[in-house]
Amino acid sequence: MTSNRSAVLFALALLAPALVYILVIVAYPLFDTIVLSFTNAALKPTYDWVGWANYQRIFTAGNFTEVILRTFVWTFFSVSFKMVIGMAGAVMLNAAIPGQTVFRILTMPPWIVPMAIGIFMWGWMYNGQFGMISGLLQNFGITNGPVAWLAYGDTAFWATIITDVWIGVPMVTIYFLAAMQSIPKDLYEAAWTDGAGRFYRWRRITLPMMVPAIITMSLLSLIATFNSFDIIWILTQGGPSGSTTTMIIDTFKTAIGSRKYGEGAARAVVICIFVSIFCIVYFRAVRKLSQGEAK
Amino acid sequence: MSQLSLKRLEKSFNEARIIKGIDLDVSEGEFVVFVGPSGCGKSTLLRMIAGLEDVSAGEIEIGGKVVNDLAPVERGIAMVFQSYALYPHMTVFENIAFPLRVERLANDEVNTRVHAAARVLQLEPRLQHRPGQLSGGQRQRVAIGRAIVREPKIFLFDEPLSNLDAALRSEMRIELMELHKRLGTTMIYVTHDQVEAMTMADKIVVLDAGQISQVGSPLELYHKPDNLFVAGFIGSPKMNFISGTVSAADGTTITLDLGALGTIALPRSATRPVGEKVTLGIRPEHLNLGQSDFMLNVSPNIVEHLGIHTVAYSSLPAGESFIALFEGAPDISEGVTAPIGFNLDQVHLFDSAGLAIY
């Protein structure tokens, strides 16, 4: 009995650091955010309980549904491009070409460069007066004058996606490359002796065998991209005219910019619900895929 | 006419020479087994024939045509891999149909050919299963099915039974031999297991360090090994070797000094220089209990009673290990000197370079 109790205490002692971390960093802020979302907290010493008023307001007044839709569109394109480019990159890096290692190393900079610095670099490239992109387009006669990519809603929307893709692609590429390399070489040799060409082998062997990796990476990337803040904030701060305002930017602007903590918290809770749904889908997919592998 | 000819075939990986000039002819319908220890180059040789490895020098001819630069599919071969190389995401049907899909054959034709192969291999009830749901033997049959549907001129098997347990291995061995009889197609089979080689082959090619050590029928290799390597490799348990020195050779008899074991006079027409170090070989199953031409009288350290056989393990005075195999259960015990001997017509003799002396 005593030894049982000491074993439990020992286990708790080992778990304590992680438990404290989760309680302080995750559980308390989450709980506090949920509580705040039912109040009219602002930059005042006190606040009142307002029930569902914040939720009612964000879904009836303003453009919150538009922001949600924009977030999904932004996330959809960003994740899709990352998957397609990541897959193409992995296929190329997996090909037996001379200097393969050099190319593999060259994929890493977007990931290695501190994110803020990479984003500032893109900010300059998008600049109408001094930016490389605008300059090149003018030099090649594609545009007549300077194009300030971040100054217009449409172009800013795509510019932020491109930067997000640039930063996100290396991880997807490396993950897909690892998955590709775990496919037994024998399968390709068997297909090759049967006369299957490169594309046929990719379509009938590589792609289907990578489905678990593609599903896992898409869902992980979806969760990360949905919450992508730094890129948009540094490049456009959600502008111009809210054209790049996604849910996370919108929440920050409301809670920190306008000091409406209660309403900001309600917006944050909505994000939390969406991300939780993605996480549930992710964990279910992982469980299903690992069961499939076990068969 | 030979269906497959290898001419001075060589393969190097950077500095390492793996295949060192191989010449071999395989006739149509033959079951040829490449056998040898790990690293002898047998799988590399098979992969070169398949077209999965480039040829460094020499030629591969299939049906009289040099195929060195042809893709595997153009060589008329089909290969069965050691790992089976089945596509885990496809059904058995689609696995077998894979080569036909590559050829873009009509669905009816694919159906007919897959079902025909499945019938031969008794896989029909399994066609809609995935490889993960099959036993090792069934997976092996699917891999063979994928090779059969292509109707190749030559089947190549790369250690196809090495992943199966002993019971299944002997079962599959018989299935493969029956398949060979039924199809009548040339088969080239790689294994490190000399029992597989002996039981299945029309012709065995023994490889040692990238070279052919000997080519012949199983019984030729067993009864007349060309060299020490083949003598030691073919046969289970292994042939016993006893070191000796030539003390006289007169063109009809070679007399050997076997040290503490005494002297022995072997009928041999070859003349050898006196003082040459030679090796005498005697198979464990050719040893007798009781009166023989030459008596060893050793006492076994270990005796294994297998019912059908009894195996006695001993050490000779010079330290060589010595194995004797007797039928049934003779009266022989550990630590008790037994009258073990052999007749001179069963003895093999090898010169200092390891080549047989006849």
Characterization of the model:
- The complex is a heterodimer of chains A (about 300) and B (about 350).
- With about 300 residues, chain A is mostly helical.
- Chain A has helices at about 1-35, 55-60, 65-95, 100-105, 110, 115-125, 130-140, 155-180, 185-195, 200-210, 210-225, 230-235, 245-255, 260-295.
- The two termini of chain A are about 40 Å apart.
- Chain B is built from eight helices and 21 strands.
- Chain B has a six-stranded mixed sheet, with helices on both faces.
- In chain B, strand 4 and strand 5 (about 65) form a beta hairpin.
- Chain B is elongated and about 75 Å long.
- The two termini of chain B are about 30 Å apart.
- The chains are: A mainly alpha (about 300), B alpha+beta (about 350).
- The interface of A and B includes residues 187, 193, 200 and 208 of A.
In brief, what are we looking at here?
The complex is a heterodimer of chains A (295) and B (358). Chain A has 295 residues and is mainly α.
Physical arrangement of strands within the biggest beta sheet of chain B? 6-7-8-3-9-10
Oligomer: heterodimer
Q: Please estimate the helix content of chain B.
A: 10-25%
Kindly state the number of beta strands of chain A. Answer: 0
Helix and strand composition category of chain B:
alpha+beta
Assign an overall shape of chain B: elongated
Order of helices and strands of chain A: HHHHHHHHHHHHHH
* Overall average pLDDT of chain B: 91
Spans where pLDDT lies below 50 across 5 or more residues of chain B: none
What's the β-strand tally of chain B?
21
- β-sheet strand percentage of chain A: under 5%
Task: Count the DSSP helices of chain A.
Answer: 14
CATH level-four homologous superfamily name of chain A: MetI-like
Instruction: Return the CATH architecture of chain A.
Output: Orthogonal Bundle
Number of helices of chain B: 8
Shape of chain A: globular
Q: Which ranges of chain A are low-confidence, i.e. pLDDT below 50, for 5 or more consecutive residues? A: none
Q: Biggest sheet of chain B: strands, sense, closure? A: 6 strands, mixed
